[in-house]
Amino acid sequence: QVPLVESGGGLVQPGGSLRLSCAASGFTFSAYIMGWYRQAPGKERELVARITKTGGITNYADSVKGRFTISRDDAKNTVYLQMNSLKPEDTAVYSCKAESRVSARAYWGQGTQVTVSS
Question: What is the pLDDT, as a whole number, of residue 102?
């Protein structure tokens, strides 16, 4: 059983929007901090956005502030990334991560490709 499965990626024009989803299974989703990361070709993986267990605190990379929004639905064991005003430099493979500061466990999804191009 794959613990995290992303969906929602695709090809979008500059200025467009996409909503990524990451569905979790096999662990107590509500007990984990959730994050979205991305890796562009030839670049290091970077944190895009993170949300705490209760959803009360979010943080974002400077490059996406004001354009991306992370949210979670613990009833559906799912974390989302709403991406608006997309730019070509947002092109990357986007992956979600679940991490527990208590148990030190972490899970990664397989990633979903986002391509921003005209």
Answer: 87
